[in-house]
Amino acid sequence: MLERHELEAFLTLAEELHFGRTAERLHVSTARVSRTIAKLERRIGVPLFDRTSRRVELSQAGRQLLEEMGPAWSRITDAFERAIDAGRGMTGLLRVAYDGPAAGQLLVGAARRFRARHPECEVRIKEAHLPQVLPWLRDGEVDLALTCFPVQERGVVTGPVLVREARMLAVPVGHPFARRAAVSVGDLARVTVVQLPRASPKSPRQDRTPPRTPVGGSVAPGPSAETFNEVLTLVGAGEGVFAVGAHVRRYFARPDVAYVPFEDAAPVEWGLVWLAEGATSRVRAFSEAALGLVQDSAPAPGRAPRPTSRVIRGG
Known about the structure:
The chain has 315 residues and is an alpha/beta fold. 38% of the residues lie in helices and 22% in strands. Mean pLDDT is 84; it is low at 201-217 and 300-315.
């Protein structure tokens, strides 16, 4: 059985027809190339090259060996390179989900930036309804998802915060809160809050309440909705209220819903999430592209910091 270094020496010398250039390409000495070829010729029993003081040429046996072995070796090396590329994660298909139109716009920009750096990797973007984000990740439907933080699920990595926005409360347009300049977290003790399925990420937009619930207060759970449009329909119908990010005013303007700012609630944060076991190089590269896009486009004071990715562990 031929060794790899013997095959490489023969094929390179057959191409270069010069021992010095062959040695340079293989990063070995000229003497080593000469010894390798001589050893190979002894094993085969015939000369593979005709050598003179002025030139090196393939012998008849050498040409036959090259014709039969060259294409096969080319296929082997190509397959090896494809395996390396797959391991590095920079080829193939990257599937990214988003939750809401604002997130979709951010992903389009991130995908454009990613493709410019890694044109050999295809990016496919698809919209997910609120309860679908984590199931899609766990079922392998997508590789990453852009959604609200925090996502506190075992084995799920949360990337850097990409967007921060003010928190608001969606209320029926005829509700007393709609006439106020702002509401407080404590006001939630006086209203019913629309619910989402437990499969949804535990995020500021999707939580039962903003993070600081009133001391001694309780939140009255309202009806459940499967999609964000269903949430707003329930809110508009007077079935309850719901905490949202400020972008909702632009993308979900409705005649039956008013958006009132919180005066004391933490901002809504958005970022990418993925499974720890699916953290390929292309996943990490896409996260870096998204963060770079946000940092390049945002004014310096409002840029998100560069925290490290975090994975939730334990039972």
